[in-house]
Inverse folding.
């Protein structure tokens, strides 16, 4: 698109050319340009605004003027080539009438008064324009002055902000240093607290072990005094039996005195009692911690791990007591046909079991314990691990529980349930318990009792939160069933023998 300046320049240079051919070529080019602009304006007329359409029209008028100037130049050159008289008729008949019609104007409708009024209005508008210009200049000066003052204020504010930023950076650095120091102190205090808890737990274990040692010493002293009394009694009998008459009297009353002599189980009851209590403490300090570390590799929740271990110990005592009753029934049945002697059949059965504890089929009890744990609603949904992993703890607990049934009275663990009222005489709180909570959330280790007396305290965790949510959510699981997983079934079948070892008459 050519602007009016480019068109005027083109018209100026075209007047300098004296060849009509070149002028005609310029006219041709300008005509084509005019045609293109007309077509473009016709296409875009509805799209363009009023100002844009007026600009298009002015450009076309300027282009038309350029074409007319080129044509007049060609007319001038052509007329000059014809001389003084050639072409005069054509000019008279065609050009002059056309010029007359083009430059003829109608009579103006504006009167002299109207013209004077327009001139006054124009002067008034010029005066207002000058006044507005002066006021505008004054306002611009005021705005420049205000802008300068604002810039000065902005620079002062920037300087103040820079100072505040420096102070803020310094404060941040000091705060970061203090925070690092506080974090180090907190981590150190946490480490000291953890060490203190561990030391407290060690001291509690030592205290419980000390109580067990004192009880063992007392039992050993009682047993020693009992054996000393038996020794003195036997020694007196031996000194009195030098004569044949005394020997005959001893032979006659032998049967009556044999009924008063204790069996091996009764003689070793005190020592076995102390040994089994010590072994129970060893399970807590040894096998329990090993099983807890092993389960913690696969289960992150410490509560779930401790629940699994507690349930395993409780199920082991149940399985061992059931196995002891069955073992004792088979022993009584076997000995009843051949039994004779001063001791009763019950004492003979217990004495035989004490002498042959290795005949206890512990593998069957272990499999029964694992089967019971697989259907326990507190730990079997979902089955986090295979409970065969803690088979060593279950095996040792079954052995200890089985041997405890041979004592008179037998040792057992007390009944425990989640949500029961905490009893300080039966339990001690774990280090992570809430010491003001009145209810037991879950148990870590059972309480060992003899009859109704507490021998060794258990361990429990007390919380103020609800204790029933866990059991309900697990037992009401709609996804899992009570059937065993394939891995557990294979593990159980691999460990279970083809037929349980039963007490045969050949062993007796």
């Amino acid at each position: 698109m050519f602007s009016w300046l480019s068109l005027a320049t083109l018209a100026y240079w075209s007047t300098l050319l004296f060849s009509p051919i070149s002028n005609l070529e310029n006219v041709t080019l300008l005509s084509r340009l005019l045609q293109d602009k007309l077509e473009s304006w016709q296409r875009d007329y509805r799209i363009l605004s009023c100002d844009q359409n007026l600009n298009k029209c002015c450009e076309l008028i300027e282009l038309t003027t350029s074409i007319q100037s080129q044509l007049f130049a060609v007319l001038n050159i052509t007329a000059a080539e014809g001389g003084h008289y050639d072409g005069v008729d054509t000019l008279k008949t065609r050009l002059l009438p056309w010029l007359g019609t083009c430059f003829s104007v109608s009579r103006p409708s504006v009167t002299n008064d109207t013209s004077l009024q327009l001139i006054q209005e124009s002067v008034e508008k010029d005066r207002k324009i000058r006044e507005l210009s002066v006021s505008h200049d004054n306002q611009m000066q005021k705005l420049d002055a205000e802008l300068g003052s604002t810039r000065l204020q902005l620079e002062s504010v920037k300087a103040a902000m820079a100072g505040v930023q420096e102070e803020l950076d310094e404060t941040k650095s000091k705060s970061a240093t203090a925070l690092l120091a506080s974090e180090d102190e907190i981590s150190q205090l946490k480490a000291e607290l953890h060490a203190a808890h561990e030391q407290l737990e060690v001291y509690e274990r030592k205290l419980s072990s000390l109580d067990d040692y004192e009880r063992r010493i007392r039992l050993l002293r009682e047993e020693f005094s009992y054996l000393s009394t038996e020794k003195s009694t036997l020694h007196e009998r031996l000194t009195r039996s030098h004569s044949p008459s005394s020997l005959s009297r001893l032979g006659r009353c032998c049967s009556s005195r044999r009924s008063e002599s204790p069996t091996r189980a009764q003689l070793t009851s005190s020592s076995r009692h102390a040994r089994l209590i010590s072994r129970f403490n060893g399970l807590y300090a040894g096998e329990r911690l090993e099983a807890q570390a092993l389960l913690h590799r696969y289960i992150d929740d410490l509560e779930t791990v401790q629940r699994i271990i507690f349930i395993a110990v409780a199920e082991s005592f149940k399985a061992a007591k059931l196995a002891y009753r069955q073992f004792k029934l088979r022993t009584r049945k076997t000995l009843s046909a051949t039994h004779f002697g001063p001791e009763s059949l019950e004492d003979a059965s217990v004495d035989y079991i004490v002498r042959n504890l290795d005949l206890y089929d512990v593998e069957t009890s272990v499999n029964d314990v694992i089967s019971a744990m697989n259907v326990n609603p507190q730990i079997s949904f979902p089955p986090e691990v295979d409970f065969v992993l803690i088979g060593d703890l279950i095996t040792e607990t079954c052995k200890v529980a089985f041997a405890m049934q041979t004592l008179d009275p037998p040792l057992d663990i007390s009944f425990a349930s989640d949500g029961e009222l905490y009893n300080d005489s039966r339990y001690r709180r774990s280090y992570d318990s809430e010491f003001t909570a009145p209810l037991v959330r879950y148990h870590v280790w059972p309480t060992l009792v003899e009859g109704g007396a507490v021998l060794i305290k258990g361990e429990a965790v007390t919380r103020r939160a609800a204790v029933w949510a866990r059991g309900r959510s697990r037992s009401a699981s709609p996804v899992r069933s009570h059937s065993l997983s394939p891995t557990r079934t294979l593990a159980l079948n691999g460990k279970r023998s083809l037929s349980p070892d039963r007490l045969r008459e050949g062993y007796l």
Remarks:
- Confidence is low (pLDDT under 50) at residues 1-18, 242-261, 469-508.
- Residues 62 and 496 are 113 Å apart (CA to CA).
